[in-house]
Amino acid sequence: MKYLHNIDDPEFCKMVTLLTFPGQTIRKIGDYLKMNNNVLRETSMYLRKFSRINDYNQIRWKRNAEEIATSGEASGCNDLALVFCSLGKYLGYSNRLVNTWESENLKNIVTGKGSDSISGHFFVDIHIDGKWHQYDPTLGFCRDGYKKGDMEFVTLAKGLDTSEMFFRKLDDGKDVGYEKEAIDLRHMGEKLKNGVIGMDRLRQIAKTEGLL
Q: Rounded to two decimals, what is the model's pTM?
């Protein structure tokens, strides 16, 4: 069966990739979560048990959801979001990862004012009752919009997994057909190196979001 690459289509967002494919650990956790009345709450409690890797630069972007879940250690919000996506797909929920940037931070960077350090965060959109809901796997909250405390975030990219959304940064709106149960998109992450998104693209996002 051929699938059309449409990240807004809930049916397409049921697809698993090699980064989100539910292995033995994910399935075991998912089977436990199925027995609870409030699956979302129990999933949040499970993710809070993850310990934080101090030297995360050595391992960030290098593991799939199964490897992260088996280790019980997360390098940051990206790892927790990836595990959440894998669990959600195993439980039958359409979902997609969302890479965001804190609004004021993005404005400061493109205008050359203030700090040039990046303040980003990963959310997950989960499709329930015919509507996309924004969920923060790190804090365990379901929100309307991408927010973290008082901070508001703008969307950089959405995708089935972390490497796939990097691909979409380069080819926005392009339809791609796949014929695999688990889509191999890991090599797409290589395109992120050396600044896939340039300053022109960041300015465009900031302007679209009304920050400039």
A: 0.78
Cβ within 8 Å of residue 33, ≥6 positions away: 39, 42, 43, 46, 87, 91
Mapped onto helix, strand or coil, the DSSP state of residue 58 is helix
Residue among 158, 149, 161 nearest 186 (CA): 161
The domains located in the chain, with CATH, are 3-208 (3.10.620.30)
Nearest to 165 by CA among 106, 78, 54, 103: 78
Separation of alpha carbons 5 and 195, rounded Å: 24
Alpha carbons 110 and 136: distance in angstroms, whole number: 26
| Summary mean pLDDT of the chain | 75
Residue 64: closest CA among 34, 21, 121: 21
Q: Within a 10 A sphere around the Cβ of 208, how many other Cβ atoms?
A: 11
